[in-house]
Structure of HAD family hydrolase:
Amino acid sequence: MKKNDRRKRKLQEEACDYEIERTPTTRYEPDYEEGLTSAQAEEHRRDGWGNISVDPPAQTTEEIIKENVFTYFNLIFLVLAILLIIVGSFRNLTFLPVIIFNTLIGIIQEIRSKKTLEKLNMLNAPHATVVRDGKTSRVNSESLVLDDIVIFKAGNQVCADAEVVHGSVQVNESLLTGESDEITKNPGDHLMSGSFIVAGECHARLDAVGVDSYISKLTLEAKAMQKGEQSEMIRSLDKLVKFVGIALIPIGIILFVQSFFFNGDPFRSSITSMVAAVIGMIPEGLYLLASVAMAVSAMRLAKQKVLLHDMKSIETLARVNVLCVDKTGTITETNMSVKDVVPTSNYKKDEMPELPKMLGDFAKAMSSDNITMEALKEYFKEGTGKKAESVTPFTSATKYSGVTYEEEVHILGAPEFVLRDDFDEYKEEIEVYAGKGNRVLVFGIYDGELDGKALTGKVTPLGYVLLANPIRKEAPETFAYFAEQGVEVKVISGDNPLTVSEVAKEAGIANADRYVDAATLHSDAEIADAVANYTVFGRVTPDQKRKFVHALKDQGKTVAMTGDGVNDVLALKDADCSVAMASGSDAAVQASQVVLLESNFACMPSVVMEGRRVVNNIQRSASLFLVKNIFSFLLSLFSVVLMITYPMEPSQISLISMFTIGVPGFFLAFQPNKERIQGHFLSNVFLKALPAGLTDVLMVGALVVFGKSFDVNTTDISTAATMLLLIVGFIILFNICKPVNIFRGVVWGGCLTGCILCIIFLPKLFAITGMSTKCIMLFVVFSIATEAVLRYLTLLVKGLQKGYRKIRHREEGI
């Protein structure tokens, strides 16, 4: 694995160096039916002409260790530890085991997650059908070499630059050029890597592979951009860490200077008080907790056969409030069957062959490049033996396929697109069949020539082909879950809207009777209105799917798009979160952030719940961490302004952090949590932590001021302050554990017991001393006041928050 990673990194450097020109010493032009020989393929591979991906590989184990050990905050901790060792304050090094433990947890979990995801990625790697030694085989796309003959069919993504040598295909190059028009490629034409096949089948010879392919540089640019794209939660944590990282150095220096030079404190106590303040400001476990929690979630989902191409999709899915689904493959099974064929009044049985045999000829001439054609081939096996002169494959844009014979042209497709102006004449009987949940196709004779574009001539309909996909057994339960969770479902399909509506009703989708024909939506304004008011959309083109996603996002929705076909790729790319079925097209799978490896839509609720669990629990735990950071930051400023020495020691901060933040935060982050995510991460966390942080500052600050007034020993004040912070910490922890269950109760009780035991049996280690009578009296007074101050500050913050929301809503209403 490491060797392959080094090879990929070398290729990345080559791909980014525009001066490099590589020319193979030997080129082959094999026959398309024979392909390269094994010896020729091995020669190219040996000479470095394999199709090795330039996608940045996953981090190596060595890189994971370095990234977790050599961090900015670990450097700060190292400097602080050295200072404490210099002054001989060894007991205040109690924060080091916590830091080492946190680092080890991060390394172990990331390595475990890396190995799990690597196995899944190997199973889910892009594949291609190659011709070698006259035989076809399906191989990993990285096993291909220059000059290989590859067979491309509808749904395949082109994995290397190639030249068509046999056959004809329609290609969508939108992922490369931004143009969604489908382009026909014939022998001699070039296929660009990164494009995908919409219709047809061809043999193509690879003429640029690996770093030399067109997609390589685009891939590196895209991946580089994606690396910068973080979820809101990670972005918020980055901001917090950056602020603290910058602020703590000048504050630490000021505190030391003030204590040593202005207050005349000994060098040793000046160092320890400064270290305590700085340690209190560092959210040492918060970022790690988020990373570990997300890595564990990725592993949990992997066990459920869900692959994440992008970690941020966990949070995005948890925030989704609109889910766009296709009918086929999501609501229904992917397999399709012909239920019946019904002649129209135009079909003259005495003057032409039997309708099933005509359809048999039609199906025989077409390639099996979609499930509809596979169903037709399975049902209409007998034909008249008529030979086809040319074939026009189905595309999602034209909604028809056709076969040209010597004497006439037969056509099969969606009624609205085939009949066009004559549709109203047959609309009533078509809707009768569609109303029973059938997908209705019109089969007829076309009086013009087919060119792969929209029809212009007249079609004489001969019959209706009725097809159906069975509803997935788990679909009603899955959609009931989304309705319960307040996630709106939009069904977007290329089929007849009435058919889709009936299927959606059967699946239990709310408001499935509200449907619209997308062919009637011509402007962006009409589309925006439709997505706001309808649930089911039929006859949707690929470009419209993309516009639907944009319209929903413009309305402030967080949109998830599911899909499995090439016609879904554009919308998948533009959705906030994209989900693909592994059984679908290569293009859809590679374009999506989440891949359902068993193509089972029923696992979607567990994916959403996993996201909610991670984000909600990290928010809950993060507020614990932030209480300490707010307190330490404000108390440091308080100490600077009043020219007093920071009243606590590092070991005391370690005791508080361990039992009221670190240990409970870690365990609570992995609890089930199905609540909907609302608001922004940082504001949610900050507002929850603010009352407790302010309470800590007010109580400890007042205790220090009163202690000085009553001539209480600084050591006693330090112990009393530690006790006050522990009281506030356990009150906050109890509130966070609500509603209390057995697990949360054990966590809270266990932390409280552990803290008491440390105070009783390890008082010297944590600088806990006996208190004088004056100090005890002050401590009792402030302890009683603590709960009331915390309660009223909480009410004040909530009141201000509610008032701000009202003002904002009023302004938005205006």
About this structure: Residues 773-813 form the longest helix (41 residues). DSSP finds 27 helices and 21 strands in the chain. The chain has four domains: 2-60+122-226, 229-298+608-813, 306-332+472-599, 337-468. The radius of gyration is 33 Å.
